[in-house]
Amino acid sequence: MASGNWTRVTEFVLLSFSSLPTEVQALLFLAFLVIYLVTLMGNSLIILVTLADPGLHSPMYFFLRNLSFLEICFNLVVVPKMLGTLVVQSTTISFLGCATQMYFFFFFGVAECFLLATMAYDRYVAICSPLHYPVLMNQRTRAKLAAASWFPGFPVATVQTAWLFSFPFCATNKVNHFFCDSPPVLRLVCADTALFEIYAIVGTVLVVMTPCSLILCSYARIAAAILRIPSAKGKHKAFSTCSSHLLVVSLFYVSLSLTYFRPKSNNSPESKKLLSLSYTIVTPMLNPIIYSLRNNEVKTAVGRTFRKALALRRCNP
């Protein structure tokens, strides 16, 4: 395309929820602000409690700390700017700011997919090889698994973001979303993007399906091991150790699939915004709640931590 048909874009405008009345945007701001604060406090509490309580220094809680830290970072990438678009109508974002937001969105999103697979493998080892679990999941191994979970985000985010922002953009700079996601930004490109779209589709399928397959394999083995346990009490105890993770995985993959794998005919910008809220805002808030309410060890540790904090406060008025 000739250079006269496109201009150099220096900033983008996030349309966010600007089509809604001001009163509705104010209500959305309050709702999202509460969810945001609950997410930060809930995940921070999980990190602090699992670090402070010696009973929660097992591999499962090491990976849970990683997940909580990831959820905090993921929220920081998307939510503050979205809140700004609602309360002060600060809808502009610089070219570099948009690229940076997209980069970290991809990075943390990919890392979460692989971290959930690592957590499933941890549950598989704990249930299928309980006697060897402390040896197999020692500190060195769990550190390697955590690093392996975080690493794939770097190449995926780097290639996809650098490639997309190397394209020329049309005169319009309005992104019909509440953050710089790939599909709405791609619609502004004035060039042939067929090869990029093929890469994006293949990359998304691989990034989502590879860890998903590992999770399914782990839980197939776990289910087979649980069925071999003779007592109902033993089966319940074994299942309870992975039920929280299974629920978190289900929420994450269902929301992700509904957002990125729907037919284009059923995928209007407004419906995609609503679906995107599920995995960018709702799921990070629910994760600490699920692990707190469905896990007796975490609930007990939270109580112990608060009692210790109160005792220290009384001793040091």
List the helices and strands and how they pair.
Elements lengths: L10 E4 L7 H31 L6 H29 L4 E3 H34 L4 H4 L2 H12 L2 H12 L9 E2 L6 H5 L7 H34 L4 H29 L8 H25 L2 H20 L2
Parallel strand pairs: 1-3
Antiparallel strand pairs: 1-2
Helix pairs in contact: 1-2, 1-10, 1-11, 2-3, 2-10, 3-5, 3-6, 3-8, 3-9, 8-9, 9-10
Mean pLDDT score = 87
What is the C-alpha radius of gyration, as a whole number of Å? 22 Å
Pattern of helices and strands: EHHEHHHHEHHHHH
Overall shape: it is globular
Structural class: mainly alpha
**Euclidean distance between termini CA atoms:** 72 Å
State the total count of DSSP E strands: 3
Largest sheet entry: 3 strands, mixed
Name the helicity range: over 70%
Q: Any low-confidence stretches, pLDDT <50, length ≥5?
A: none
Strand order of the largest sheet: 2-1-3
Beta fraction of the residues?
under 5%
Tally of helical runs: 11
